[in-house]
Amino acid sequence: MSHEPVTVIGLGPMGRAMAGALLLGGHPVTVWNRTPGRADGLVEAGATLAATPAEAVTASPLTILSLTDYAAMYQILGEHPDFLVGRDLVNLSSDTPDASREAAAWAADRGARFVTGGIMVPAPAVGGPGAYVYYSGPGEVFAAHEPALRLIGDPRYLGGDPGLAQLFYQAYLNVFLTTLSGLLHSTAMVTAAGTPAGDFLPDAMAMLTAVPAMVGSGTEIAAEIAAGKHPGDLSTVLMMGATAEHILRTSDQAGVDRALPAAVKSHYDRAIAAGHGTRGWTALYDVIKA
After folding, report:
1. What are the pLDDT digits (tens) for 128-177?
2. What is the secondary structure of the chain as a DSSP string?
3. What is the tens place of the pLDDT at every residue in 170-192?
């Protein structure tokens, strides 16, 4: 069985991981990076190092971009790259949904087809069990290259809107980044009292995995939000708002940064002011979405 050639532009940890997975899957791989030395290991494994972005793109029907943001794509490919005509681009860089839509229009104006994506695992997990990637854009383009893309991670196609993959990507990373900040803020609260971080963090990490058991599955939460029903039989906005107040006061007394707990408390304050005090915590959605 023959495998289509694939080009990977951008050889940070993620780009190198993707190129490696494609090589292991039997695809001829061409690579390009501003710092050519990053390609050394891939070249030793069988990849071809292109001298220019134009040479890289024209080497394959599919080019995968793994860059800092979408602005880097424009800088690398140039304003009027005629070598894009007839090529398919899959941009797995991070940016906003609107940036993805603008990039899709930019590529179409230059004769290329464009799919956006978001890789939902760190570089060491690319191509391994549990890896998955969101994609959006023209369905026929995604389908044409799905066998190659599957080597990176389980492909989850969201639809024709080029912005959807980035919307999901940024939304999930919002959960991730906010959680990390919460962990560090809580650790600072504890260590301010002279307690070692090691006495706190193991149980804090265990608490993260216990959250679904405490608040319900995503399916249950989604049903409450969709129905606009937020039962407060176990805990109410008023009760949890009081806890948010206590966390903020404890942060102030510990002398640690108050921005994160103040933001959380503001959600409860506004929900209470809107008359949601006796409802469950998911009622905060009605405040946040506005």
Report:
1. 999 999 999 999 999 999 999 999 999 999 999 999 999 999 999 999 99
2. -----EEEE--SHHHHHHHHHHHHTT--EEEE-SSGGGGHHHHHTT-EE-SSHHHHHHT-SEEEE--SSHHHHHHHH-SS-GGGTT-EEEE-----HHHHHHHHHHHHHTT-EEEEEEE-S-GGGTTSTT-EEEEES-HHHHHHHHHHHTTTSEEEE--S-TTHHHHHHHHHHHHHHHHHHHHHHHHHHHHTTT--GGGTHHHHHHHHHHHHHHH--HHHHHHHHHHT----SS--HHHHHHHHHHHHHHHHHHT---HHHHHHHHHHHHHHHTT-TTS-GGGHHHHHT-
3. 999 999 999 999 999 999 999 99
